[in-house]
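Weekly modeling sync, notes
Attendees: AB, CL, MP (scribe)

Item 1: holo prediction request
CL wants a bound-state model with 0O2 before deciding which constructs to order. AB pointed out that an apo prediction alone won't tell us much about the pocket. Agreed to run with the ligand included and paste results into these notes for async review.

Input as submitted:
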Amino acid sequence: MEIINWKEELFPYKQATDELYVKFNSIKKEYIDLEQHSPIELVQTRVKSIASILDKANKRDIPLTKIFGTLEDIAGVRITCKFVEDIYKVVQLIRGRDGKDLIIKEEEDYINNTKSSGYRSYHITIKYTIITATGVKEIPCEIQIRTMAMNFWATIEHSLRYKYNGNMPKHLKQKLEACAEASFKLDTEMGTIRDEIIETQKIIQTKENLVYEILKNIQNLYYIGKLEEMNKFNREFIDLYQYASIEQLHTFNSKLQTLANLYKVNHLE
Ligand code: 0O2
């Protein structure tokens, strides 16, 4: 009778997903900081539960001793995007890292080759190297890339599949197939106004970044003891904030910046 030390076996998978989580979120942050549209909307990771691992192994007749060498989705990363076009941008980003910090083993495009269930997503199976206290390990990981609409459909279908355990009633299957088509239509329609949505989001992001800068500069006045000026700018900002255009906020921030620079010089002197 084979005994698996699950905690020890699963630890490296958790490390791999943790590292990948940080890496994909850094890409997202880079786009946001540069005020560009991020093709990555959300990064989620999970290590398959022991029950699901055993369930999958059982369904596929995989002996216990072969589980870790055979199952390739014990470590999973899910990247959710706003638009279908973004999915392929993320695919390009991952391909760009092939041979650097990961190795691509397989790609499955379930968007152009939709599964009979109606499932759509882009899957990339990778090998990811981690360094643990006990040495170097190569961990297989499945990256699923999908839109928010695809994700909504997949999570609902997944729970229903779980509920019916392979015996989903025909009418429900048909309903789900119809829902999959309807949600893909939504993705396609949204894709046609992608540029406009991105433009609007950029404006919001620019405004958010500017407001952050302004508040930081006002706070700096407090730190260097210029309380009167701090209060003056604070009041002015409260009046300005709601209706100000990006240009007005820029002008306001430049005034603050000039003052901050000036005081910084005086302060140092
Ligand atoms: P979980 O709980 O998400 O981990 P297959 O034999 O085709 O079922 P395979 O060969 O392991 O699966 O790889 P594939 O096709 O790339 O699918 C792996 C994962 O993709 C699944 O993992 C699901 O997460 C997702 N997936 C694939 N097909 C479907 C589908 O029809 N509906 C939904 N909702 N998800 C799907 P697990 O282990 O099934 O589940």
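Recorded for review: The chain has two domains: 6-192, 196-262.
Action items: CL to compare against the apo run; MP to circulate these notes.
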